[in-house]
Predict the structure.
Amino acid sequence: MEVMEAIKARRSSRSFLEKGIPEKIIDEMLEAARLSPSGGNGQSYRFGVIKDANLKEELAHAAGEQMWIAEAPVVIACCADISWDLLGLPEDDFGLIVNKLRFSEEFIEYLNKYPNRKSVKTLLANPTPLIPAEHMYLVAVSHGLSACFIGFLDVEKANRILRLPENMVCLFLLPVGYPKDDTAPKEKKSAKEITFCETWKG
Ligand SMILES: Cc1cc2nc3c(=O)[nH]c(=O)nc-3n(C[C@H](O)[C@H](O)[C@H](O)COP(=O)(O)O)c2cc1C
């Protein structure tokens, strides 16, 4: 399937058939994640492949009781390594400079004073697994599978369920399976509504 075909066929599916996913497809999804871009090629994304029924059920509870998640034959835990901290970095550190540029010096100063380092690092790592997870999602669609991003998640609870070490966080879930029903495409804004040329002329 061509990339654009997969993009057009993609839906968020919330019910799945009781049919396992061939290992070859899961491997291909993980390979697509592995090849994805990351800031400074940091590759701090990590992915858990969860098939165990009890674990899937616990994760569904952690996702605000979205129990349909446990129906998926595979739930991908989209995680990030948060060993890196902004605190204590030399002034010329590239990561520190980039974050100050993006969010302002004052905000970074505020974050550096914030005592709960894990919260700060979790916030900064939030986008880390999203691009590789979307790669996985499109590969899954190209094989007739479907999925749904899950961001409504008690992250600390998910970390505990997956027995992640302190330097690892589970930021999103991606339940994957063969979709039960043909979900209608969601209405999307027109290209014109989401585009501007050169500068904003509002
Ligand atoms: C970052 C992110 C988090 C999401 N979290 C949830 C979620 O917790 N539960 C859910 O049912 N859908 C979730 N979704 C799916 C969106 O509701 C869905 O993408 C949106 O309604 C558009 O529908 P479509 O994906 O079929 O185009 C999430 C999507 C994204 C991108």
